[in-house]
Structure formats: structure tokens, C-alpha cells
Amino acid sequence: ARTLVTGGSGFIATHVIDVLLKAGHSVVTTVRTPQKGQNIRDMHPGVPQSKLDFVIVEDIAQPDAFDQAVVSDPPFEYVFHTASPFHYKYKDAEKELLQPAIIGTTSILHAIKKSAPSVKRVVVTSSVAAVRSKEKNVGGYVYTEADWCSVTAEDVKKDSSMGYVASKTLAEQAAWKYMKDEKPSFTLSVINPTLVFGPVAPHSSLSSINTSNERVYSIMTGGAKSGCPPTGTNALYVDVRDVAIAHVAAAEKPEAAGKRFLLIGGHFTNKQIVEIIAESFPSLKENLPTGEALEKGGEASIVGDYTFSNAQTREVLGIEFTSLKQSIVDTAKSLQALEQSA
Ligand code: NDP
Questions:
Q1: Which long-range contacts (CB under 8 A, 24 or more apart) does 335-342 make?
Q2: Does residue 82's CB lie within 6 angstroms of at least one atom of ligand 1?
Q3: What is the ipTM of this complex?
Q4: Is 50 within a domain?
Q5: Does ligand 1 come within 6 angstroms of the Cβ of 86?
Q6: Ligand 1: distance of its center to the CA of 82 in Å?
Q7: Where in the sequence is the domain holding 148, given as residue range(s)?
Q8: Domain assignment of residue 272, yes or no
């Protein structure tokens, strides 16, 4: 089928494009600059432009951002909306996070409804951030797709550190509301990944590793040497290749319509990441903490406080989750390859 992927330069989108091409689909992806589009084309030498092409969408926060991009010949059947800001380097959460996330989501749904009647399924990349709520993280609570984060736009005005969580929660809520109010002819599926590890693309930049892999690169390069930092509350991982397969399965499977899918491979601690790197990359051992520096802060505070059920994802999408070890080893290998080519 002909597919549209927004934010093709992104970490997750790179893998979604890979899975789509391998499955025989053709892909058009939106990027902010021609160079980013060319980088994606260069990653797939031998794939003709009719199978992999790009269009420029500079700013998804514009309400008409996708009006042109959704129109294609042959017309699109599936749309994957992955583009959304994921970083903590913002000054104005409303402008830099909430608006691109929320307007980006509603504007693509609206553009499809208006101008792309051939689209059957839209898959939106949301997050576990839209599912988990602090007040439930106790007593072994088991999260499922029925849970929603309770954050509001008002909370962000009081505490801008809630910006990313709110951007994902409010954007996903806006998507389901659009489906309910506007009743478009396409159906919606949503992917809710936790912290994503996995191989980065060869054109990525070491100075701006995607947010979720920053932790692995920091540990590899000595960032935890004098003391392993606490794992924090985000102590669940999933591999990017599982996330990408889930996106494509969510588009292809009729029974995925109208559902959210938690993408969670399991718990991790920073200490485990250190141990996996130490075992598999002897040359990096001198950068890693040992003894007390390793024991001190590496354990997660939340193991046992809450967990997640990924039953729906396994049953409907058929996902088998990659192990933490495999994910970290492949992440580290890809980061080493980037270092060598820099
Ligand atoms: P990346 O930062 O690698 O990718 C984000 C993508 O969104 C990039 O293509 C970026 O373009 C694009 N983008 C951001 N803001 C804008 C904007 N205003 N206008 C146009 N394009 C924009 O992150 P990931 O691949 O990790 O994230 C992809 C999606 O997955 C996001 O929706 C994120 O919230 C979600 N997610 C990620 C998780 C993770 O741990 N990685 C966990 C859960 C959800 P450019 O490259 O030009 O900046």
C-alpha cells in the first residue's frame, strides 16, 4: 500500500520506514528540510523514488501544515503520524511542545478527512506518558490501555516540567475526540511506547542523540563513571524495532481499529545497562562505574510499585518483545559506528 509517515528524520520513524519498505509498501515521508529527506533516501540505496520519497512540512504546529502532504498519486491508504517534539530543551512549553503535538495531530486528521478519502487507517504515535499517572504508581498497580494520564494544560502553566507528558496526553485525547466528533471514514490506532532504546540511523548526529538513547550514550562515554545515576521513574524500556513493527501491524490489522497499544518490553535499571555494556564491550569498561559507584544509584525506585500489561499488544499485534540485553547491545553498536564515522 501507499503510506505516509510524518517526521521521517526521527528515531522511531526511521525504523517504521524500514519495516514498511521491507513489507513491500511504498513510503512518502514528511521532513523539515530537503537534506533530511535526502538522508533518508541515502539510507536505502537502490530503492526507487516511486517507493520512497519525501515532502517538506516545516512546522507541524501550523493548522494547515499537512494539507498538501496528504495528497498523493497513487493515493495513500495508511498514515503514520510520528512527528512530535520529544526533548526537554524548551523555554516555552506551550509553544514548543503542546502546540506542535496537539495541532500537529488534529491538523493531519483534518487534512485526511478533507482531501484524502482513500486513507483507511491512521496510526498515531502517542506514549506511555499519556497512560501513566503519578497517583496510581503504588501498590503494584497494573496499567492497561484503559488508563489515562490525568495531566491538564493548567498543570503545565504551574509546572512547565509537565510539558512533554501533557503534550502527548492532550494530543492523543484530541485525536480520539476528533474521531468521535467528526466521524471520518478512516479508523484510528494509537501506539503508546515507553522509553525506547535501539539502533540509531547512520545519519544521526552524536551531538544530538535522540532523547531516549541519550542515557545509553552517556553511560558508554563515562557519564556514570563516578556514580551510576538513579534510574528514575521511567524505568521501563522497549526496543525501537518492536515499536516499528507494532506501528505497521496496527495499520494492517483490521482488529486494531479504535485501539491503543502499550509497547513495553520490561523493567530496566541503569545498573543493568552498565552491566550489559561491560560484558559485551570490554573496550568500554574503563568508562563504566564499578563497586560502590555502581551499586549506589543504579536501582530503580519503582520496581514493584507498578507494572503494565502488554497482553493486548501481544495478542492483537503479535509483538514478541526484544530483550533488554539485545536492545542495549545493538544501541551501543550503532552509537560506536556513528563515532567511527564522525
Ligand atoms: P525524534 O526526536 O527522533 O523524532 C521526532 C520527530 O518529530 C523528528 O522527525 C522531528 O523533526 C519531528 N518534529 C518535532 N517537532 C516538529 C515540528 N514542530 N515540526 C515538524 N516536525 C517536528 O524522537 P522519537 O523518534 O523518539 O519520537 C517519535 C515519536 O515517538 C514522538 O511522537 C514521541 O513523542 C514518541 N515517543 C518516543 C519515545 C521514545 O522513548 N523515543 C517514547 C514514547 C513516545 P526534526 O528531525 O526535523 O527535528
A1: 335/200, 335/206, 335/209, 335/213, 335/216, 335/217, 335/220, 336/220, 336/281, 337/202, 338/200, 338/202, 338/204, 338/206, 339/206, 341/202, 342/206
A2: yes
A3: 0.99
A4: yes
A5: yes
A6: 6
A7: 2-197+239-264+307-321
A8: no
